[in-house]
Specification:
The protein is mostly helical. It has 3 helices and no strands.
């Protein structure tokens, strides 16, 4: 059996977790684990996007604000 612990959360947090349940019998632990997985995936995707953007900048594949304003006629 998994080790358990009790945590204190605000009522509004508990209500938000309740709304995030995929099915009524899903545990708060399951909801929290799913949310943590999603955050980790987002973080990994963000890291990849940042690296791609850095590479594009190094390769000169960007437009400055000034150039964009000129191009747009501002």
């Amino acid at each position: 059996m998994a080790e358990t612990t009790t945590i204190q959360v605000k009522q509004s947090t508990k209500e938000a977790l309740e709304r995030m349940k995929i099915f009524s019998r899903e545990t708060y632990n399951d909801v929290l684990e799913r949310l943590m997985e999603e955050v980790q995936e987002i973080n990994e995707e963000t890291k990849k996007e940042i690296e791609c953007a850095r590479q594009e900048i190094e390769e000169g594949k960007y437009v400055t604000h000034e150039d964009l304003k000129k191009e747009m006629g501002f």
